[in-house]
Design brief:
Elements lengths: L1 H9 L1 E6 L2 E6 L4 H7 L7 E5 L2 E3 L14 E6 L5
Parallel strand pairs: 1-5
Antiparallel strand pairs: 1-2, 3-4, 3-5
Pfam families: ThiS
Organism: Shewanella mangrovi
InterPro entries: Beta-grasp_dom_sf, Mopterin_synth/thiamin_S_b, Thi_S, ThiS/MoaD-like
């Protein structure tokens, strides 16, 4: 059982997503991260480590261990 736990830890990494520590799969892109959370890509902005990440690069932006990711929902109104 310990061996299984150790092997699972080898494929997971910690991210801080909207100020909450979470474990996610290694080599996950921003696009996949949003898809796994059922977040519509056309309605959010993503900031990685304090830098706005353009939507055009989400599929090629691979999260790194301990990245701080903020996902902001677009809000209409005045």
């Amino acid at each position: 059982m310990q061996q299984l736990r150790d092997s699972v830890k080898e494929v997971l990494m910690k991210l801080i997503i909207n100020a909450v520590a979470e474990e996610v799969l290694l080599n996950i892109s921003i696009t996949t991260l949003l898809e796994q959370r059922d977040i519509a890509a056309n309605s959010v902005a993503v900031v990685v480590n304090g830098v706005i990440t353009p939507r055009s690069s989400w599929s090629t932006t691979i999260c790194q261990a301990n990245d701080e990711i903020e996902i902001f929902s677009a809000v209409a109104g005045g």
